[in-house]
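Hi support team,

I've been running sequence recovery on a batch of backbones for a student project. Most finish fine, but this one hangs at about 90% for roughly twenty minutes before it completes. I'm not sure whether the input is malformed or the queue is just slow. I've pasted the structure tokens below so you can try to reproduce it. Let me know if you need the job ID as well.

Thanks,
M.K.
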């Protein structure tokens, strides 16, 4: 972005962390726009949690640096911390207290007015259940109370580590809708870490994909999905023969019932090549439908591109 007033919500420079001879984070350059919902994605063990702890100042980097809204986390840690509210995967709530009482403990520690509790409860749609004991909450309700706690004091940046982990479909939908509304309702930037690629695709405006400690791609979701070739859904009169022909031509195919899915490469002209291959083999082609590109297909495409370039 242009303009002298622009300051990224998060900016890292060649950020690295080494544990026992292994690079858990291997030199990442994150750039998170203000008021974005940034999905920080990758498989378990890809370095996401270590990177979050570096951003929060809970770990000291081996190399590189982190800034939060322009404040260097190493040299101006207190100012940086004041910009951030966090919901980490390891949560601490007191089951014998109500949701309101749990929030009040944190509110008092931060020296905030009592009105803050009502504001954050409303933001996460927990006002009606705030007087119930947390021990009687569903996992989704616990997560929303944790999110409300992170929002106390109106931080400009919310860091959410696996907020949908373990939730049932209803809980995922409720959490997704809550997170999606936060930038407009509160003005906060959301940095959302998850291994649930398809779920975050429905929530995030921007994504960064981590693999083996490295940030392999980042940007706006709408832009990055242009890099991914969609899968191809195929139905013929003989699914077994279809699988044999595709396997013999080195295509990655999977079968679900009578449908065959083919993972395409980077060239969309391959769709026509596949069609000719099957027709020339004497198969009756009943359906050939490109599937919408997804974050999952983007992840696979970028991984394959990196390996091919290595």
């Amino acid at each position: 972005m242009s303009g002298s007033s622009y300051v990224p919500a998060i900016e890292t420079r060649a950020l690295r962390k080494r544990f026992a001879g292994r690079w858990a984070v291997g030199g990442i350059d994150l750039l998170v726009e203000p008021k974005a919902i940034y999905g920080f994605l990758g498989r378990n063990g890809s370095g996401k949690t270590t990177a979050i702890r570096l951003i929060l100042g809970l770990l000291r980097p081996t190399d590189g640096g982190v800034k939060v809204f322009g404040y260097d986390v190493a040299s101006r840690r207190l100012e940086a911390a004041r910009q951030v509210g966090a919901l980490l995967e390891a949560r601490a709530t007191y089951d014998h207290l109500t949701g309101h009482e749990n929030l009040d403990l944190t509110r008092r520690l931060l020296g905030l007015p009592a009105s803050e509790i009502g504001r954050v409860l409303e933001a996460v749609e927990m006002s009606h259940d705030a007087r119930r004991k947390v021990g009687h909450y569903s996992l989704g309700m616990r997560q929303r109370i944790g999110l409300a706690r992170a929002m106390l004091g109106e931080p400009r940046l919310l860091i959410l580590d696996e907020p949908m982990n373990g939730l049932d479909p209803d809980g995922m939908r409720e959490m997704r809708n809550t997170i999606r509304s936060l930038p407009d309702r509160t003005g906060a930037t959301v940095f959302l870490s998850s291994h649930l690629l398809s779920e975050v695709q429905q929530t995030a405006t921007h994504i960064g994909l981590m693999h083996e400690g490295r940030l392999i791609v980042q940007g706006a979701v709408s832009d990055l999905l242009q890099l991914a070739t969609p899968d191809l859904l195929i139905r013929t009169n003989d699914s077994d023969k279809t699988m044999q022909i595709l396997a013999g031509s080195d295509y990655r195919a999977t079968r679900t019932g009578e449908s065959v899915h083919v993972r395409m490469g980077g060239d969309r002209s391959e769709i026509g090549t596949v069609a000719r291959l099957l027709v020339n083999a004497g198969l009756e082609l009943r359906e050939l439908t490109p599937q919408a590109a997804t974050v999952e297909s983007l992840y696979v495409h970028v991984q394959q591109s990196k390996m091919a370039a290595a």
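--
Follow-up from support: It reproduced on our side and the slowdown came from queue contention, not your input. The mean pLDDT is 90. No action needed from you.
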